[in-house]
Amino acid sequence: MRKFGVQLYSVRDKFAKDMWGTLREVKAMGYDAVEFFWEFPCTAQEVKAALDDTGLVCCGWHTPLHLLTPGNLMGTITYNKIIGNTELTVPGLPNEMTNSKAAWLETAQKFNEVAAKLAPYGMKLSYHNHAEEFRPMEGDLPIHYFLDNTTPDIGFQFDNGNAMGAGPDTDVYTLVERYAGRIRTTHQKPFSLKDKHSTMVGEDDIDWKRNFALCDAHQNIAWHIVEYEDAKYDQFEGIRLCLENFHKLGI
User: Fold this and answer.
1) What are the backbone angles phi and psi of residue 167, rounded to the nearest 5°?
2) Helix segments in 119-207, DSSP class H
């Protein structure tokens, strides 16, 4: 059975003012998990209490790179252990870590080093893509440089909507087969070749049934995480419609 969570950046305005109320509203929509983002909003004990209150679980945290540096790593591990999260996902990288094949190979090695430090504590490291990883660079795709040179325990949080933003000829399906077992969580984000992210599930250009069928066949995905960022819909309406339309499609 597929399980759906939501990336809280989708409802960032209310979340910044009222974490508890936001989590309650997300749970009422039918979501079972939430993925947090960026800096810690409050103490780990407060986050844990809010999760327990709503019955939600934490399915990941978009963790800025600086929180994984030696001086901050143990604090990050401790915080996430308290709230019950094991998935630390880097949401993006600075240009100097991604502007060439050599940079990507060095970045892959840095991820290997951090992942090895996390493993004894039951923590796992992943990387979240945007469009850039699917644009050709020096004869191949950056995402291939990264995944081919990181250890199998390093996950890839596949954002299909972001990937399609690389261009109309982007293949966002083959990668799910090529890197079997590397995707532990996904970002499910609608994308239209005409209107970009200003669209909705069922009205866009993603072949959703093929997308989910490939994920089922080649990956062991714990959570499919909905993210909707466009101003076409109110933040809560956007994530509500995404989940509702997935159900209408029989997903």
Assistant:
1) 150, 160
2) 142-148, 160-164, 174-178
Which residues, 6 or more positions from 224, have their beta carbon under 8 angstroms from its beta carbon?
2, 3, 4, 5, 185, 186, 188, 212, 215
Distances (CA, A) of 122 to 143, 188, 236: 25, 26, 33
* Predicted TM-score (pTM) of this structure: 0.97
Strand partners, 90: 127
Q: What is the pLDDT along the chain (251 residues), one digit of tens a residue?
A: 899 999 999 999 999 999 999 999 999 999 999 999 999 999 999 999 999 999 999 999 999 999 999 999 999 999 999 999 999 999 999 999 999 999 999 999 999 999 999 999 999 999 999 999 999 999 999 999 999 999 999 999 999 999 999 999 999 999 999 999 999 999 999 999 999 999 999 999 999 999 999 999 999 999 999 999 999 999 999 999 999 999 999 99
| Helix residue ranges, H only, the chain | 12-17, 19-29, 44-54, 70-83, 101-118, 142-148, 160-164, 174-178, 208-218, 235-248
Q: What is the rounded distance in angstroms from the CA atom of residue 92 to the CA atom of residue 98?
A: 10
Burial of 167-199, coded b for 16+ CB within 10 Å and e otherwise, reads: eeebebbebbeebeebbbbbbbbbbbeeeebeb
Q: Residue 232: which residues within 8 A CB-CB, separation 6 or more?
A: 198, 199, 200, 238
Architecture label for domain 4-248 = Alpha-Beta Barrel (3.20)
